[in-house]
Amino acid sequence: MDLVVERDYPTLSRAAADLVTGVLMAKPDARLVVATGETPLGLYRNLADRTVRGQIDTSRLRIFQLDEYLGLTLDDSRSLYRWMRDVFLEPLAIRDYQVTRLPGDAANPGEACRAYDRAVEQAGGYDLAILGLGPNGHLGFNEPPSGDDAPTRVITLTPETVRSNARYWGSEDRVPRQALTAGMKHLLAARHVLLLVSGQGKREILARALEGPVTPDVPASFLQRAQRVTVMSDRDAMPTPPVSLMGEV
Ligand code: PGA
Q1: Which residues of the chain have pLDDT under 50?
Q2: Residues with Cβ within 6 A of ligand 1?
Q3: In a designed cystine with 12, which of 6, 81, 192, 230 is the match (CB 3.0 to 4.6 A)?
């Protein structure tokens, strides 16, 4: 695991964009699973600029949705697909046919999750997983407890996640209580995981994820055993990095 601690959020976002650009240069048809949430927005803005300037070619990428609320249609403003479309897909000129959705509006959500896992397997797994860290240690919506072999599935959100996500939608009442999430098994098997963490509010959970016991109670702690992980954090989230974990960009 490499840990990269940057001075502040803009620097973190540029460093993350450099890493992602490197992956796309090496593999223009890479399979990416991408987080929504606030943390990766600076990264996505950097990648959008590079797309407009012709520095990266996104036309052959394949994108997988990380998570979605259960029961929302695409015209619902809370749909995470819409969020991904607005901040990532459209700014990076990625077309619909390049995207594998996690359909929150499927008639049979359990079967839709199994079909998603089959699609990931047929694609040969994820090359790059761009993930954020939930205040309860979740990855995607793999809420605690989630084991390292958890498949893509429907999950009930913890009160902590509902509280945390209320900031996106105005109030807790607006946050759906169930969601679909890409499973731990394929996320941990990604050829490269990029975990982005920013802000003081993530300080304690980041320390537990990186240095605490590996446990389903902190799903992100399984990253300690994943094959290739780069954790990029700003100093607010990691003021005193453990020397043993410091890597290089
Ligand atoms: P955030 O969300 O990037 O908005 O903090 C992270 C998460 O809850 O997974």
Answers
A1: 248-249
A2: 37-39, 132-134, 138, 164
A3: 6
